[in-house]
Every structure is written in structure tokens, then in C-alpha cells.
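Rotation project, supervised by the postdoc (A.L.). Task for the rotation student: set up a whole-complex structure prediction and record inputs and outputs verbatim in this book. Inputs entered:
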Amino acid sequence: MPLDKAPCEPLFRLIRMAEASPLQDSIGKIRMDRAETDARIRTLIEPFNKKGVAIGDDTTFANDLEFDSLTVMDFVAAIEDEFDIIISMNQQAEIENYGQLVDAVTRLADGAGA
Amino acid sequence: MSEGVSQADQEQELSGNSPDLFSKFDPLIQQREDLLSTGVTDPFGLVMEKVLSPTRAICNGRDTILLGTYNYMGMTFDPDVIAAGKDALDNYGSGTTGSRVLNGTYQGHKECEEALKEFYGMDHAMVFSTGYQANLGIISTMAGKGDYIVLDIDSHASIWDGCALGNAEVVPFKHNDIDALEKRLKRIPAGAGKLVVLEGVYSMLGDVAPLKDMVRVAKENGAMVLVDEAHSMGFIGEHGRGVAEAQGVIDQVDFIIGTFSKSVGTVGGFCVSNHPKFEVLRLVCRPYVFTASLPPSVVATAATSVRKLMQAGDKRAHLWENSRTLHSKLKGLGFTLGTDEPQSAIIAVIMPDLERGAAMWEALLHEGLYVNLARPPATPAGMTLLRCSLCAEHSAEQVETIVGMFERAGKAVGII
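Outputs recorded:
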């Protein structure tokens, strides 16, 4: 009976996942797909970018684009359907800016994130 | 309650210029201050001074009709339920002072689980100290690292917190969208464990899930299914087992989560299941193990109430009648409602904004009617709602009185 186990593990889940993020893997191949992924996401983000903010890799969703949780949900669903992938909440927690999103989608669409 | 949070400008001074950990709540403190400075009664500080029946209480010295209690079946003052509680209090004491797996399982807890097994016609039942803990425990324990939880985006906080406590991948889908659920299930990598989490009735708008199709889709894709029937137990379905029963799929649902704090009329939560290995959860489910069990009087009232709810067909019929009447009359007055047709005992009246919602709430209170004011982030799509939950003990005359109160308050505030 696990009566004495400390409940600490889940608290560090996100930190651990962030450290283990394999974004730097196989740079050469990803760079090829990354430009195409970027272009497709740029099209998808247009209707959500209500203020017409100029988007670069360091543009943040919460602060620069002012996405609320509902907008995030709709935007993520649009990307998931476009690329036929899942971006779980756990993965979303690591994505703060546009560049990180393009990296994550590139990796997930490549099958590496499954 | 409001006194303690109305000091946004008073920072705690900490050495080394460390930030006050409460600073993150400043926007909320400010929003409350702005609202209360308009002179409106604090909608989250109401005190029930006396409770006269499942449908009436004294609030601010005024006799008030209760239309926001989730006391759907009016069991809180049932004479048999009260007698069972008093008897248990006399014979087993005021509390167990222990965990279910140590000294906290009394005869009454086992009898309560037996009553639930009979009520649902299922092999196993596990009673938790609250409904919140039932979701927290079952979801976080069952879905582990590498597993996927696929859940409706409008799920209750206890479901989200169950996801946050565990290690599974969490994948939300658009509310009640069968295609969105199916697409996500099909994208989950082969070999991963899958748990689909749904609710029978969603408590904010009172709408019902298309469980028939969703359970089919889940099963076609190899997922286990958990349905939270908190707001349907005792009322929806021929035997009051919930929306899964009403839509004919209860035998394909792996886990039903429920609560004693709504139709059953006390407090506590539970999970029922036919899974052959279900009982192991008693050893591994932390929100079950690491908390004190329910007091003997509470499980005695719950067991008695659950057994009475099995035979409550007439009360179910009257509650449906109340729900239909109130829905059609409020709609007729010109209010915007959460659903086009009455789907449950919850009728959500959509307010144009928080300010007018709070004004309407207060106007109703002055009329002598209590409803729930619900606002973001608890509500979907940033809505402010006046949420009405009907009771089987509301008389037809009370429902008429309620309609009149809504009409006067709605006109006074300028909503209709």
C-alpha cells in the first residue's frame, strides 16, 4: 500500500517535460519542413490575429496576440485539423511564442512527437 | 468574505524586494471592488439564515424561494433520510477520524456502496468524501504516463483538476462535438491507453451530451469511457441513473461518477463500475486514501436517500413538468436561455454582461428569489449566467411565482 509515497512527482511534470523537449533534433531535415509549416500556420493564424500584429518567432500568444483560453482552443483545433496531429495540453504548456509553435508542429507532423 | 479581499493596494513587504505572492490576484480584487462599489449586494457572500424546506430559506431576513441549490429531488428534509442520519449519529458518533483504508470504513459506508450498486445495477461502488475528490482520484489514478485523456472543453473543474494531478496527455475537444472527439481519438498513437471523459448534463447551460454517439465513437476507437452524471442522477433516465441510461448506453460506460450533494441531498462522491479490477483503486487512489471518510450520519442519509430515489418516478415526472413550465415561460418573456428546449433541471438565463447580471441577481433577491450568478472563468464563452436549478418539491404555484419575479426584475433592470 503506497501510504508513505510522497506526492511530488506530478508537480514537476511540466518542468521535466520542458527539459526533455527534443526540439533540437535532426536540424537539417526539420529546417526544410519548417518553412512550409510556418507558411501554413501563418495562414491559419490570420483570422485569430484580430489586431493585425506583425508575427515573428518571438511573438507571444498571451501577451502580444492577447489570445484568451477560448481563442487558444479554437486556434489549436484549427492547427490540429490542418496537420492531422494532436497538441496535448501538456505540450501546449511549453509553447509560449510563435517560433516554439512552429517547431512543435513541425516535429509533431513529422511523427517525432507521437 | 468581501472584506478580506478588498485591499488591492496593501502589499506585504518582504525582504529582498521579493514579490507578494498575492499580487497575481490584483485584477480579480479590482474587479470585485468595481462591482461592489456600484452598491450591488455581494453575489458570493449570501448567508442562508434559516432553511425552511428544500425550496425555501430566510436570506437577509426575507422569506426566499430557492432556485439555485441543485437539490433536484428535494431529499434534504425527507423524514426517512433525517431519521437515518440521527440514528447513525447516536449509534456511530459524529465522525470516523480516519481514512477509508484504515479505521474509516464503518458498516454505513459499506451499506452506502451496496445501495449505489443496486441503484446502478453495477458490480462495484466506491464512496469518496466529495464528488470533487471522486473525479480527482479516479481520473488521476486511472490515466497514467503515456495514456491519453480526451475530454470535453466545458468539463467541470474537478475533471480538469483530475487531469492536472495525473501524468497522462490531456486532449480537449470542442463542447459536445462528436466529430472533434472522433478525430482526436484517431490521432492518438497506436498502443496508448485512452480514457474519454464526458458529462451527462453540463451544469452551466444545462445541456445534455450526445452520449449515444460519443460512447459509440469512443468504443470504436478502443477507449474506456467515464461519464460524470452529477447533474442527472435521480432525475434523468427511467431509474434516475442519468443521461447514459436515458440514451441507452449505460452498459457500455466503464465508469460513472456521481455525487451525493445534488439529488441525494447530502455530501460525498462516488464511482460505480463493472470493471473486474475496480477494487484495486481503493489501494492506489490518493484522494480516496489520504483523507478522512464521510461521517456515519452522512453515509446513512446518503444510503437512505439513494434507495428512496430508486422509487421516485412520480417526483421525476413533476420535476420535468417544472422544468418545462419555467423554460417555456421565461422564453416567452423574452429571456435568452442556455438551451432552446429544456434538457435537464437546470435553466440558464444568459445575461448581457456581469454588471447587469449582478443587478438582475440582486433584483431577484429583493423579490425573494435565489438563483446562482455564474461568471467567467466558470462559464463557457465568457458568459454571465443566472443559473436556475429546479426542485421536485417546487409546487406549480411556486413556479408561477418565480415567473412573475423574473418578469418584474427583468423589466426593472432593463433586460427584457
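Student's summary: Chain B touches chain A at residues 101, 140, 148, 153, 163-167, 169-174, 180, 183-184, 187-189, 283-284, 286, 289, 377, 381-382 (CB under 8 Å).
Supervisor addendum: The mean pLDDT of chain B is 95.
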